[in-house]
Write a structure and sequence with these properties.
Elements lengths: L9 E7 L13 E2 L2 E2 H12 L4 E6 L4 H7 L3 E4 L11 H11 L5 E5 L8 H13 L4 E8 L4 E2 L2 E2 L17 E12 H11 L8 E5 L2 H4 L5 H13 L17
Parallel strand pairs: 1-4, 1-6, 4-5, 7-11
Antiparallel strand pairs: 2-3, 6-10, 7-10, 8-9
Helix pairs in contact: 1-4
Length: about 240
């Protein structure tokens, strides 16, 4: 396994559970011939940011995919496998059972378009800014309302161009990371840990933020990953076109 350059024992958890109300067994759904969960495992390992990458799951059949793609495996208690389970409790369970880690991250398996480079930049940001917790966000330049009221524009002026808006930050949960000491202290004093201590937010790409929730999302991600297209293509010959 890669070694963290900050000389701290840092683990990436890839959480998975057998139950999923909106897309059954989505973590094992095949995208371009590989199970969804494998993309998080591969990107986390390739980032070089972690001492360990561990699939944290509620059923032993995730052991096979963890082993095949180079991750370790932890079988969490069955009571942490329901749809009501909070990620705070999953992380807390792991750190209590593995007290030798100083930092713990979640690399979300439902973000298959997230790259190893983006993961590395989140982790570097965490250490460089001495954060206690960090979460990824997608910045959207759109006109947003909350309870029918505009929050980044006004009804009393001409409509602001989208590129001139203050972006709204949407938490994507693609990567989350914590100092174990801060997370543990927050859980034991307040009952929650995700936003603990000195909190940071890190913007990532729209692709990295794309989240698998329903079967249609699986089909869309499969199409993107299967296409292999990495560069934009245009109609016609732009070099000789005189009018655009």
């Amino acid at each position: 396994m890669q070694t963290n350059t900050n000389n701290m024992k840092t683990v990436a958890l890839i959480p998975a559970r057998k139950g999923s109300e909106r897309a059954k067994l989505k973590n094992l759904a095949l995208l371009n011939g590989k199970p969804l969960i494998s993309y998080a495992i591969t990107s986390a390992i390739k980032s070089g940011s972690f001492d360990q990458v561990v699939v944290d799951a509620d059923h032993e059949y995730f052991f096979k995919v963890a082993k095949e793609f180079g991750a370790e495996f932890y079988l969490r208690p069955e009571l942490l496998g329901s749809s009501e389970t909070k990620i705070d409790d999953v992380v807390y369970d792991f750190i209590l059972k593995h007290p030798d880690h100083e930092n713990v991250a979640i690399v979300n398996p439902v973000n298959p378009l997230l790259t190893s480079d983006e993961i590395k930049r989140v982790v570097d940001h965490f250490f460089e800014n001495n954060l206690d917790s960090v979460n990824t966000v997608e910045e959207k330049y759109s006109h947003f309302l909350f309870e029918d009221k505009p929050i980044n524009f006004t009804f009393s002026e001409k409509l602001t161009k989208t590129q001139d808006l203050i972006p709204v930050q949407i938490i994507s949960y693609a990567v989350q990371m914590w100092k174990v000491s801060s997370f543990k202290q927050s859980m034991e004093s307040t009952g929650h840990g995700v936003f603990s201590g000195k909190v940071g937010l890190f913007p990532i790409s729209k692709r990295g933020s794309f989240n698998i929730k329903i079967p249609d999302d699986i089909c869309m991600a499969d199409s993107i990953l299967s296409s292999g297209v990495k560069n934009l293509k245009y109609y016609g010959n732009l070099e000789t076109a005189s009018v655009l």
